[in-house]
Structure formats: structure tokens, C-alpha cells
């Protein structure tokens, strides 16, 4: 049983093997369900030339946004870019390459990568700049464009609970991109709020089976609120 235990005790161990130029898929969106401590470890390592795949690039000073401060990200593949002034500055200055991808397409790129599907056709983006340079094909009198799937050298994921075998449950909105990202990494690292013993999780409630997970670490989380609404 010990050989199946995927728990690591330090963030340094959790991100062991990360090198310059790698591709990282990160779960969460905005500040919801983001693997904030794993991101902080990437910041600490000062790994450079990264391609990061995530719904967005966090905010100034938190989440993936902290990786922009020392220009660790070379290319960002995202569906939303509206909450980060430093991101905007680096994009306009030509210091950051950005592949803006429709949100559903981005989600399917992760899912397909995890399922071993190299590419898929979608109608989303046809007739827009998204389709430039991409193969198109007609099915049932409708045009579709070919999108390649994504596999990351690392996938970093935020869960709620996990057991020592790496079976993971996500809580509420944190189910966003996390389950998809978890399947698409050559090395998948999950940080969770609680690690339980094997057998304590109800099998029918597990969102990510441990077969996809390489490392699990328990962390503490700031859980910032991105936008506070105080009156309607």
C-alpha cells in the first residue's frame, strides 16, 4: 500500500522536476479554486520561459499574476485577460505572447489532452480571428475549425479533500477547470485543504480518480475574494 501513497510534505518536493521552458496547466479561474501555494512555489523557484495554460492570469500581486512580476511566463494560453494591469502592459510591450482561446474550447483542449485525443473540430471561432491559420472542414453543412488538444509538463490543481492515493473531491465552483487540468498533466500535483485516509471518501463523490494524480500536498489557503459586492 505504501507504494500508492502520493502525499508529499513540502512544496519544494511537490514541484520537483520543474524546469525552464515547460508548459504548466493551472486549474481555477480568477481567484476561485486556484492552486495558490503551488504557484507561489513556482515563483520561489524563479523558473523562466514558461507556457502557462489557464482560464486567466490571476490578478496583480496574487495567483498567476505573481509570475509576471519577474517575467517568468513567456506565453499565456487563456480565455480571459481583463483583471491584470501588468499582464496588459507586458502584452502591449511585446514581452508576453498571448493565445486568446474561447473558454469552452480551452476546457475541451484540456479534456481532450487528458483523454488522449490529439485534436477536435469545433464551430466556436469560425469566421473570427480565432480561426486564422487553422484547418477548417464542413460537417452537415456547417463549418468547423480544427483545434489541437493540450498536454502540460505539469498540471497544478486545487482540491478540497483527497486521500493518500490521490483521489480528489472539489468543492462548489472550484470544480471549474480543476478536474480537466488534472487529467492533462504529465505530472499532476494537487494541493488540498484536507487529506483523509483511504476509504474515507465516498467513491461516488470523487471527481478526479487517483490514477491521474502524481503528488498530493495539504496546504493552507488565503481564499481572497476577487470582487466584493456590498449592495445591489
TrEMBL record:
Name the InterPro entries for this protein.
3-oxoacid_CoA-transf_A, CoA_trans_fam_I, CoA_transf_BS, NagB/RpiA_transferase-like
> By its UniProt entry, which Pfam families does this protein fall under?
CoA_trans
The answer, when asked if Transferase is one of the entry's keywords, is: yes
* Keywords assigned: Transferase
Q: Which domain of life is it from?
A: Bacteria
Q: Which PROSITE patterns match?
A: COA_TRANSF_1
A Gene Ontology molecular function term of the record:
CoA-transferase activity
The family line of this record is: Belongs to the 3-oxoacid CoA-transferase subunit A family.
NCBIfam families annotated for this entry? pcaI_scoA_fam
Protein name per its UniProtKB record: 3-oxoacid CoA-transferase, A subunit
UniProt organism field: Marinomonas fungiae
From which lineage does this chain's organism come?
Answer: Bacteria, Pseudomonadati, Pseudomonadota, Gammaproteobacteria, Oceanospirillales
Amino acid at each position: 500500500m505504501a507504494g500508492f501513497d502520493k502525499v508529499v510534505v513540502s512544496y519544494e518536493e511537490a514541484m520537483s522536476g520543474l524546469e525552464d521552458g515547460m508548459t504548466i496547466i493551472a486549474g481555477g479561474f480568477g481567484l476561485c479554486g486556484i492552486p495558490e501555494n503551488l504557484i507561489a512555489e513556482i515563483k520561489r523557484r524563479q523558473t523562466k520561459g514558461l507556457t502557462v495554460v489557464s482560464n486567466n492570469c490571476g490578478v496583480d500581486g496574487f495567483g498567476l499574476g505573481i509570475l509576471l512580476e519577474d517575467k517568468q511566463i513567456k506565453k499565456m494560453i487563456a480565455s480571459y485577460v481583463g483583471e491584470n494591469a501588468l499582464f496588459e502592459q507586458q502584452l502591449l510591450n511585446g514581452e508576453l505572447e498571448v493565445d486568446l482561446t474561447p473558454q469552452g474550447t480551452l476546457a475541451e483542449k484540456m479534456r481532450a489532452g487528458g483523454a488522449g485525443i490529439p485534436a477536435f473540430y469545433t464551430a466556436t471561432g469560425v469566421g473570427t480571428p480565432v480561426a486564422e491559420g487553422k484547418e477548417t472542414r464542413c460537417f452537415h453543412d456547417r463549418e468547423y475549425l480544427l483545434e489541437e488538444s493540450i498536454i502540460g509538463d505539469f498540471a497544478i490543481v486545487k482540491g478540497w479533500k483527497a486521500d493518500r492515493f490521490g483521489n480528489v473531491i472539489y468543492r462548489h465552483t472550484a470544480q471549474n477547470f480543476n478536474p480537466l487540468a488534472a487529467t492533462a498533466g504529465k505530472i499532476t500535483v494537487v494541493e488540498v485543504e484536507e487529506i483523509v485516509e483511504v476509504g474515507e471518501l465516498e467513491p461516488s463523490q470523487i471527481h478526479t480518480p487517483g490514477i491521474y494524480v502524481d503528488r498530493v500536498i495539504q496546504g493552507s489557503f488565503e481564499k481572497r475574494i476577487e470582487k466584493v459586492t456590498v449592495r445591489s
